[in-house]
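Quarterly update from the structural biology core.
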Amino acid sequence: MKDWVIEHKFYLIIAVLLIFGSFYYFYVYVDEELPLNSSISQVDNKQLSDAKNAEKKELPEKIMVDVKGQIKLPGVYLSNSGERVIDVINRAGGLKDQADQSQVNFAEHVHDEMLIYIPAIGEEGISAPVTSGGAPMTSSGGAGKTQGKININKATESELQTLPGIGPAKAAAIIEYRNTSGPFKAVEDIKNISGIGDKTFEKLKDSIAVH
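Predicted structure, tokenized:
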């Protein structure tokens, strides 16, 4: 037996090396590779998640805009935060022939809960809108005046038209807004009316109040 071992020791050495090599590969090398592959998978998943989040951020905000007056298809329209008045008007079928385009700022950006009112040519004061119960939304006899200021939650159209920058169309739009959206909570909310921007608000902010 001893002689056989000595005679075949070369082959025995090779066999032992193969056994140790196989053991190293399957139990050491493979185990070291698994965390690396796992980390690569985690990186890929993170990149995919970041890409999806970035795609969501790029989507424009969805808002609701109410279009009334001399418009072919009046109603509430779904819009995007980056759109302008003209975009919503086109979606609503466009203007009627009697629409007074000179009183509308078509380039104005739209915002959520915005009311776009399109007046008719030569439009004068419109009778105050009524609630579902038939009661007028506005009070008469100067009830809209409080300590020298106009209460935009109660003022009549004629009272609203005494404010700087407020004509018949905007006065009607103010009443329509509070009729459909509820009373103004702050004087700054009047800027929700189409055509009343920061410049117009600066002129009338000291003349209005909400109660």
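DSSP finds six helices and six strands in the chain.
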